[in-house]
From TrEMBL:
It holds the Pfam family DUF2382. This is DUF2382 domain-containing protein. Residues 11-119 form the DUF2382 domain. InterPro entries: DUF2382.
Amino acid sequence: MKAPINEQHTLPVVEEQVTIRKRNRVTETLQAHTVTHEHDQPVEADLSVQTIRIERVPCDRFVDHPIADRQEGDTTIISVVEEVATVTLRLKLVEEVRITRDTATRRFDDTVKVRRQDIIIERVQPPPDTEV
């Protein structure tokens, strides 16, 4: 027997569904700590020390005009004058103040502590099936 042409057949359809669940699990643990090492390291340096020497040099002579300050090597010379009343006005060089810089170098030797740090990282296995 033949099935009529207008006859409908229903076919079952299968549907699959997926559900995804996640969980956190510790797989490895790291520990880090630092170690500090100290050692003595010698240092050397040249240190300069300046001293100032002041010397007063009496001149006691007359000059025609003020004398400007001047430099002779490491020495600065400042002329000190005074006016002296006479029939004519003249300048008398009373003294010169000489300021000299002396530089001395001395050796400086000492030892200083120098530190250096290292970091150490260790892997630590967690207990089995540990969840976070």
